[in-house]
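SAMPLE LOG
Freezer: B-3
Tube label: C17
Construct: single chain, 199 aa
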Amino acid sequence: MFTGIVEELGEVVRLTEGAEDSAVIAVRGPLVTSDARHGDSISVNGCCLTVIDNVDGVFTADVMGETLRRTSLAALREGSNVNLERAAALGSRLGGHLVQGHVDGVARIIAREPADQWEVVRFSLPSELARYVVEKGSITVDGVSLTVMEVGEDSFAIGMIPATSKLTVLGSKAVGDPVNLEVDVIAKYVEKMLGSRNV
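STRUCTURE (predicted):
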């Protein structure tokens, strides 16, 4: 479980194709690897990955074919920057919202509109996720916990403050770039519970 508060901008050292539609990713991240052990979870652009090795500030993780198909990780290349966050510890502050690291879909940036103190960024919204996205609700974009500012029929917008732009990959992404989305898991559970009621 994560909070959507990015701890560090990491760098992809290599992404190696593996057997049976899989890959191994190696990421440099001195902060998140400082206490990482085999089996720990680290969020990479919003994808929960399991550490299999950690040497000199670089951790490696296996990436299944399912993850490659359902996220934007397959688009990463050597030198790509990525958002990194270690799993939340019990008793720590919840600065963002409850994030599982289970990507629900991939969207694209469709507009960036600079303002005086922030930037409005608009993303496409996959139709199968639209019912979970509400104005003033939470959404995770590339592992960043954000508040939805506006929802359209097939898009949504967030207001990005300078700190988010500077400290995450969202600041350097361009119109057309893919991003990973995770909707609020509470909404999905509520939908399932209400859908199973006999009314």
